[in-house]
Description:
Number of helices: 5
Strand order of the largest sheet: 1-2
Mean pLDDT: 92
Radius of gyration: 12 Å
Largest sheet: 2 strands, antiparallel
Distance between the termini: 28 Å
Helix content: 55-70%
Strand content: under 5%
Amino acid sequence: MRNADRWEALEVRHLRAFATVVEEGSFAGAARELGYTQSAVSQQLLALERIVGAPVLLRHPGGRRPPELTETGRVVLAHAEP
């Protein structure tokens, strides 16, 4: 898939799920806020990462600590917030 084709797949729901995970500090919190399942939130983030071509969050095993933004995640979030 060409790079331009990947970006055409970007949807608001991907960015909304990402921003909500960051805001809530967890996938579970984002799922509650958005009315999704935790799996659906995770799928949205995985799709976003495929589109941008890099991880946007560092996930910690066990989910005891909030996910952390990667450098790519900071850039995407800066564009998603407006």
